[in-house]
Every structure is written in structure tokens, then in C-alpha cells.
Specification:
This protein has 316 residues and is of the alpha+beta class. Helix content is 42%, strand content 23%. Bound molecules: (R)-mevalonate (MEV).
């Protein structure tokens, strides 16, 4: 018996960090995903093999968190007693790095593969809840945005709450983007904790920034629905500025953002937890995507040319 499942990588278009406090955010699955494969073998231990391509040191840095995450997933699925004799292999075309939804993609893929292996027939909503529990292994109090994008695919409006609000935003065709990897593995828990500390110290300043972030989300949603990518890009640039103000950008991220803008990207910003990891640039059109990607690569950074607005049906 085997089970297999996928989980998408993601790019947050608007309002990472702000989303933790209930500010609306916009996220998209990207055209790359992690695949998990579950097999049974004669033996009494639990095995896993991580064959994903990865930023140097990513796997080592995240190993303890990954183990914790697996434990949480098995527990949440009621499979604690079935763990021994199970092997999980991770692969797929998502090159793992910070800011790209790697942890969520693996949680979703593993939950799907276990569900198939044990014939549990779980719904996407149930798998999303399990992946959310797995995400806690990586960063204590996740908002749930990453696992939601990773489970459902597509472009999503997300608000954390009781319950979370999730709305699909449909794009007629996927839009090209470039993701630029600083090569730095970042710790999301530390990034989120840093924002909380600074926010508590200067509530007035942060209130203004948070209010503007909320406005940006509504403006961006409308611009996306109207396919007004010039406006989307402008709002992304402003969103990056707000993220700089709350202290989660870095020298490398700002550098990659400036290269992308110089090459004509409609907008560029950090994506995900920040302090390293990835930025992304909005580059509708093949030539624009190539130009931005080449310029970033020329500076010695790794890039990913992919799309946002990818529907789940298109890969299964
Ligand atoms: C990480 O991809 C996004 C953050 O907003 C954290 C979270 O939402 O859990 C930084």
C-alpha cells in the first residue's frame, strides 16, 4: 500500500505579518509543489527521506521543527499508533527555501499522502486543519494563511479569525512572477516575535501602519479583480515599504527588490516571514519575466520563474 499527496508552494502578495493580527491578506499558490509518498515496510521504526532540492542549510536548520511537525500531524490524524513501519519520502519540484511556503507545502502533502495510505478519505477542509497543526511545529502560532494556499491552490483572500475567512479571487489566466532567493534561511517565529515586541513598544506608529495595510488589501483585491496589474504592482511596492517599517526586510531583500524594479517589474516586495528568504516581483509577460530573472541571477542569486493564480485542477 502507498499513498501520495501534493502541497503547493505559495507567495504572499499582500500583508504577511499583518495577517497574524487579523488584517486581511492576499496569497497565491505558485506553480511548484512538494510531493509526499507514504509506504509501509516490515520494521518497527519511523523513517523519512527528504529528497527536496533546498537552499543550503535549510534542511539541517529545520530538522527539529520538521520532526515536531510530523509528530503533530500523526497525532492530529489519530495515527500515533500506526507510525512505526511507515516511511515518508518528500520530493517534488518546489525548491525549498524561506518565504516560499515550504513548511506548509510539506505538511499538506504529508497529510494528503497519509489520508490516502490509510484510506481516510479526508476533505480539503480537514486536510487544511491537519496541516495547520503541522505548521505549528515550524512556527508556534501560524496565522493559517500558508497551509490554506497550499491546500486549496489559486489566489486567495484570507482573514484570520474565528473562523478564518477564505475567499477565492479568480484570475482568467495565471500571471508570471519571479521569486528571488536571498539564500538566507530565516526563522519565522523570530520574525513574528520581533514585530510583536516593536508593536507593543510603539502602538501609535504601528496603528497607522496597520490601518494602511488594511486599506491596501481592499485596493489590491479590486485591482486584481479588474486585472489592473499596474495598480497591483504599485500597491505591492507600498506594501514592501510598510514591511520595511515594521522591521522585517533585510539588505539582501531590498537589493533584490530594487533590481526587479529597475528591470521594469510592475511591483516587487519581500514575501513570507522576511529577514531573508524570498522576494517576489510581478512580471506579467514572458520577456519581462526573463529580464527580471536574468538581472537577479547575474548578481549571483537564485531565481524561480513561476506563476500566481494556479488552480489545483491544473496539476492533478
Ligand atoms: C509566513 O509565511 C507568513 C507570516 O505572516 C506568518 C503567518 O502568517 O503565520 C509571517
Amino acid at each position: 500500500m502507498t499513498g501520495e499527496g501534493i502541497g503547493f508552494g505559495k507567495a504572499i502578495l499582500f500583508n504577511e505579518h499583518f495577517v497574524v493580527y487579523g488584517v486581511p491578506a492576499i496569497v497565491s499558490a505558485i506553480g511548484k509543489y512538494t510531493v509526499a509518498k507514504v509506504t509501509q515496510f516490515e520494521g518497527s521504526e519511523f523513517k523519512f527521506e527528504d529528497n527536496r532540492g533546498a537552499t543550503p542549510s535549510y534542511k539541517k536548520d529545520k530538522l527539529d521543527q520538521q520532526k515536531d511537525s510530523f509528530d503533530r500531524i500523526f497525532k492530529k490524524m489519530g495515527l500515533d499508533d500506526s507510525k512505526n513501519g511507515i516511511k515518508i519520502e518528500l520530493g517534488g519540484n518546489l525548491y525549498v527555501a524561506s518565504g516560499i511556503g515550504a513548511s506548509a507545502a510539506s505538511c499538506v502533502a504529508v497529510a494528503r499522502a497519509l489520508s490516502e495510505h490509510f484510506n481516510l478519505n479526508l476533505s480539503d477542509d480537514e486536510l487544511n486543519d491537519i496541516a495547520y497543526e503541522g505548521e505549528k511545529g515550524y512556527h508556534g502560532t501560524p496565522s493559517g494563511i500558508d497551509n490554506t494556499a497550499s491546500t486549496f491552490g489559486g489566489l486567495i483572500w484570507f482573514e484570520k479569525g474565528e473562523p478564518n475567512i477564505m475567499e477565492k479571487i479568480s484570475l482568467p489566466t495565471p500571471v508570471r512572477i519571479v521569486m528571488g532567493n536571498t539564500g538566507k534561511v530565516a526563522d519565522t517565529t523570530a520574525a513574528v516575535a520581533g514585530v510583536r515586541e516593536r508593536k507593543e513598544k510603539d502602538p501609535e506608529k504601528y496603528k497607522k501602519i496597520f490601518n494602511r495595510a488594511e486599506n491596501i488589501a481592499y485596493l489590491a483585491k479590486r485591482a486584481l479583480q479588474e486585472e489592473n496589474y499596474k495598480e497591483v504592482g504599485k500597491l505591492m511596492n507600498e506594501n514592501h515599504k510598510l514591511l520595511q517599517q515594521i522591521g522585517v526586510s533585510s539588505r539582501e531583500l531590498d537589493f533584490l527588490v530594487s533590481i526587479a524594479r529597475e528591470q521594469g517589474a510592475l511591483g516587487a516586495k519581500l514575501t513570507g516571514g522576511g529577514l531573508g528568504g524570498n522576494m517576489f516581483a510581478l512580471t506579467p509577460g514572458k520577456d519581462l519575466q526573463e529580464n527580471v530573472a536574468n538581472a537577479i541571477e547575474k548578481e549571483g542569486f537564485q531565481v524561480l520563474k513561476t506563476t500566481i493564480g494556479v488552480a489545483r485542477e491544473s496539476v492533478e
